[in-house]
# Entry
Amino acid sequence: MKIGLVGFAGSGKTTVFNAMTGMDVPVGFGGEMRLGIVRVPDERIDKLSAVFSPKKTTYAEMIFCDIPGEHGAEKKGLSPKGLQQVRDQEALCLVLRDFLNPAIEGDPDPAGDLEVFHLECVLADLEIVERRLERAKKERAEAQEVAAFEVMKATLEAERPLRMLTREELNRSYLRGYGLLTDRPLLVALNRNETGAAEPLPEGIAARLEELNAAGMVLSASVEADIAGLDPEEQAAFLEDLGLSEPALARFIRTAYGLLDLISFFTVGEDEVRAWTVRRGTRARQAAGRIHSDLERGFIRAEVIPYATFIELGSEQAVKEAGRLQVEGKDYVVSDGEIMHVRFNV
Ligand SMILES: Nc1nc2c(ncn2[C@@H]2O[C@H](COP(=O)(O)OP(=O)(O)OP(=O)(O)O)[C@@H](O)[C@H]2O)c(=O)[nH]1
Ligand SMILES: [Mg+2]
# Structure
């Protein structure tokens, strides 16, 4: 999954990025867009790896993309280049500044920034949708496509994001390829000083996020930067002092998984224990395709063991002997935490 950190200049995106990825990109001024890969912590993989002692243990990954804000602009906002970079992301994390930044005039105004960002995305989408609608009409495109763009236009004109529309209201196959911004899943991270790090989201912002169908969380990029170099015990003590139970990365990943409706399944063996990420509702054959296209093409069946069953019985052999190995066909819907062996023939 590719998640883009967006927001206005000086909101703390690069600081968040460094803390999450362990990289050391200079902060305090825009710079270039950067990519960083983060390992998704998963205790289940730790345990499976302890059982199998594989040559290789592979966790799921999340790709963070740090997109610099617009500097020196009259109004705060995203640059055309920034907008283009945002279009390439699967999901967006909007970092809102809720701390005093000496380089930026005035008090922080996260609620105001949220509105500016939202409106900017709405207008950028509206421009594309209006243009496409005009052309569709001129070219006498099929009625359903015209109708879909009419729905999008009306939604955006009401300043509502496209992600609010249900599958019944909007056939998203028409919108593929346009990179519309307000259809992206949105996670808003309110970036605070350490004093506010354990406080919840202000009610006004929480309510607004619900309206926008977006998820939210509070973090303190400076706290995360401070704990990044500590060992786990020191980290825990530091966080506890601030009233926090875990680093922001863990919360961030959970929130993002929920937002994107992602689950993990596992493959195990002496060679490798590995986590794979798919959308909830993915069927066994498609899931097999994540591992290798041959497994999808030549799919015969999947042998499935829920993680809890494996832990309860302790080995694959014990699961088989207890008659608890599930043998499933191509249309079986994979659940979070299932261990899968795909039988295939190409
Ligand atoms: N006090 C405090 N300062 C922070 C926090 N997060 C970031 N900063 C500071 O704010 C300044 C800007 O941070 P950056 O991470 O560079 O901000 P950015 O969003 O990447 O900015 P651009 O890339 O220029 O758009 C730096 O001096 C950071 O040290 C925070 O949580 N608390
Ligand atoms: Mg930056």
